[in-house]
Amino acid sequence: MKREKEKAKARSSSTKPPSKKSDCTTAERQALAAHARAAQASAKRFVDWRSKLTRAPPLSVRMLDKSEVLSIAGVSFSTLWTWMQQDAFPHGYVAGGKTMWRSDEVTAWVEALQLRRIKGDVA
Predict the structure, then answer these.
(1) Strand partners, 102
(2) Domain count for the chain
(3) What whole-number distance in Å separates Cα of residue 88 and Cα of residue 8?
């Protein structure tokens, strides 16, 4: 019984930090001070590293999914598919298992469309 108490006391005292400065030896105090200095230096390096980061400029090109392209073009997917086969509409890219279109290519397609002339327009 006594041995178990001594073992328990030895285990608990080895894991507990010293409660008073007088309980620490000089070597332990020096080791703690060195550890604290290292932690401060590490934190300073982390802050310096973070301050050097710059935010990337926003992307002007984004990927459009099928529903967005269909609403821009105003046609069904079968019509869009036919146009892609005839090279009348930009082809899509595979991204994450889905077909996506680059917004700049779709915008260029829209801007290249001819205006419909109506009665009374001057040529």
Answers:
(1) 63
(2) 2
(3) 81
Host domain of residue 73: 63-112
- 24 occurs within a structural domain: yes
Contacts of 103 (CB under 8 A, 6+ apart): 61, 62, 63, 64
Interval 74-116: pLDDT, tens: 999 999 999 999 999 999 999 999 999 999 999 999 999 988 8
Asked whether residue 21 is assigned to any structural domain, the reply reads yes
pTM score, whole prediction: 0.50
Picking from 66, 58, 71, 63, the residue whose alpha carbon sits closest to that of residue 102 is: 63
In a domain, 56, yes or no: no
Query: Within 10 Å of residue 81's Cβ, how many Cβ atoms?
Result: 13
Q: Is the pLDDT of residue 23 over 70?
A: no
Q: Looking at the domain assignment, is residue 121 inside a domain?
A: no
